[in-house]
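## tool: complex_structure
## caller: assistant
## args:
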Amino acid sequence: MELTSPADFAKDLVQAVQDYSVLAGRSMSNLFRTPRYFADMTQQADLIGFGSLPIVVLTGFFTGAVLALNSANTLERFGSLSLIGQLVSVGMVTELGPVLTGLMVAGRNASGMASELGSMVVTEQIDAMRALGTDPTKKLVTPRVVSTVFMLFFLTIISDLLGLIGGGIVAQFIFGMDSHQYWSSAWQTLMFRDVFTGLVKPLFFGFIIATVGCYYGMSARGGTQGVGRATTQAVVASSVLILLVDFFATKFLMAIFGYR
Amino acid sequence: MAAPPNAIESPLKSTESSASPVIVFDNVSIAFEDKTILDGISFQLARGETKAIFGIAGSGKSTILKLTLGLLKPDAGHIHVLGEDVTQMSEESLFELRRKIGMVFQESALFDSLTVRENVAFRLMEEHDLSEDEIERRVRESLSFVELEHTVDMFPSELSGGMRRRVAIARAIVTQPEILLYDSPTGGLDPVTSTTIVELIVKQRDVSRTSSLLVTHRLQDAFVMATHYFDRKSNKMLPLPPGARGEVPMGFLILRDGKIIFDGGVHELSVSKDEYIREFIS
Ligand SMILES: Nc1ncnc2c1ncn2[C@@H]1O[C@H](COP(=O)(O)OP(=O)(O)OP(=O)(O)O)[C@@H](O)[C@H]1O
Ligand SMILES: [Mg+2]
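## result:
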């Protein structure tokens, strides 16, 4: 393996961050410029939204269920099993629903975008598109960003709901809790700030997934191997960024709502 | 080495093409990773002229075409296309200019997830102001030009290399651009298919009067183009009558080590004394 000097590495990194920011910025500013590709947006929305539905349903359901199992174990020791509903709903809605859905969609779609755009780069299809007078950031990147943000929002809601259902089933059938009690405590404990936090996060995560996936795709170099590398990097980078942004977003939103 | 004859004085220049050139390279240099590929080259393409570019593999022929479209930016020099300096233009304004230029990429570069119809119609659909029927009509017309009408519903992966090349030509000509850039349109093809493509290019030149740059490895193809014309009546490519030299607007450009060592017509080329060129054309 070739070794790069720290200076070169830093230079490359700065360049990469700059290129990424330009692409991310353009993906948004394109929304205010014609042409807008609505057909491509709906096609991507279908691909990202309905395509991801099965895994989002499964992860949501089992996360809620396992959350109930684990917390019940602890709560039982303090004799406060009735708090399961609250724990599951707050945990799912503010944190696990958005993050796990984000990670799942990142694994599925950031890689898909990176490999699709990457193949187009190495086979000169992107150059061909530019040569035909079409801006690839408008035709390819913006529709992916818009539809990922849009669909991730709803996928997260679905995941939250299924998590609650999963938790409810565990609470009822394993711990013999009354389902009415579970749902009312789950519902009542949710405050505006929890729901707000939980619904703002997927907007950021969707943006990260699509822009990172497209960025690695568009900067793929070096044939099929390069495309493979871009795909892996896209998943790793978008997952890490999701977790990072999740921390800061949580902290920031807490500050806004005056936790501390 | 004698100074290369200037294209402007070329006897092949047809009278109408003496007007303003459509492409001007002015002292253009480009290097990739410290390796100089083009070293201050200058040439012009007159309106209506077809100029064939030769050079060994890796001499920078494809690079010239990409520079013309503004897909690459030179390290130094200026490139004027249809009067605009592409080296100074933003990507946004380049998109407008590129709509007037058609390019056939070396590896065809068809969109592999779109059908042949959608590939050829790509530009027409982007323009948004044409009806479905009109698009379909023009796609068919363009495909019949390359004799591939029956492939409209196929995907590029289902076509042979030569068919893909011809679909790429159909995609480039569907809007009847002012300039066409062909990158090795006959590369790696059998003689029969090559001849079909050469005939297509001659037809574009003589019937549509498109200005074009043509990269090729096969000198004989360019010689055929310089010695034949397209006859509209018989819809065939015919040899020029003897003594009709200079009737067709065809020029030659030879690259070597980043420089242009020859820029002129078929006649100068055939009488050139330069050893490298002699070896090249033999
Ligand atoms: N994007 C790039 N990055 C680095 N080097 C490049 C790039 N594009 C071209 N080159 C180099 O520039 C040189 C010229 O490339 P170009 O594709 O123009 O050659 P060519 O004359 O078209 O060759 P061929 O006849 O094989 O098609 C080659 O040595 C190639 O390695
Ligand atoms: Mg080439």
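## assistant note: Residues 107-176 of chain B form one domain. Chain B has two domains: 1-6+45-67+182-282, 107-176. Handing back to user.
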